[in-house]
Design brief:
It is built from four helices and four strands. Helix 2 links the parallel strand 3 and strand 4. It has a two-stranded antiparallel sheet with strand order 1-2. A two-stranded parallel sheet has the order 3-4. With 177 residues, the chain is α+β, with helices and mostly antiparallel strands. Among the domains are: 77 residues, no CATH class; 38 residues, no CATH class.
Length: 177
């Protein structure tokens, strides 16, 4: 069964929406997310932590997300983040590898913070990625069948669905010359 936001007396129908060329609202939103689970603690239930992104989710954005996630995990008392990811480009990009190596060396040197142990899944294996079912169900829940949502409406619905606060969007500042 497919769920979505709709009026109760209206039938379910999806109509392809054509964005207005003059609309300043972004045509799409990107999101970095992680399923946080603790199998050693039976009282812990899996949570999805996410941050919406202004622009494309490039390595610089992902490192901001990782810093944010490390800070949240440190508040919970964690020392290591076993990050199992899909074939995203950041773990193999030069910037991603350099950031991860530098971050882990700093955590080891200072004795404070959360180290990241990055484990990549095989290519084209979404069934192994724990977050994929969450994305599929979220997309089905937030879709609007008869109109395109504004970026703000979409962000609010995503955060409502996952039960998380709407944190400031991650972005890379644009250099002004």
């Amino acid at each position: 069964m497919l769920f979505a936001w709709r009026a109760p007396d209206r039938p379910w129908r999806l109509v392809a929406q054509t964005p207005d060329k003059d609309d300043p609202d972004p045509k799409a939103l990107a999101c970095d997310g992680v399923v946080v689970d603790c199998p050693a603690d039976p009282t812990w239930s899996a949570q999805v932590w996410l941050r919406l992104v202004d622009g494309r989710p490039v390595s610089g954005i992902t490192t901001q997300f990782l810093e944010w996630g490390c800070a949240k995990l440190a508040q919970l008392g964690n020392r290591v983040w076993v990050l199992i990811g899909d074939n995203a480009p950041w773990p193999i990009s030069r910037e991603g590898r350099h950031w991860n190596r530098t971050h882990n060396c700093e955590v080891k040197r200072n004795g404070q913070g959360v180290r990241i142990l990055s484990c990549c899944l095989p290519v084209k294996s979404p069934w192994l990625n724990r977050i994929e079912p969450y994305w599929i169900h979220a997309k089905r829940r937030v879709v609007e069948p008869e109109r395109a949502l504004t970026a703000q409406e979409l962000a609010d619905r995503i955060c409502e669905y996952f039960g998380c606060s709407h944190e400031p969007h991650l972005s890379i500042s644009k250099n002004v010359t």
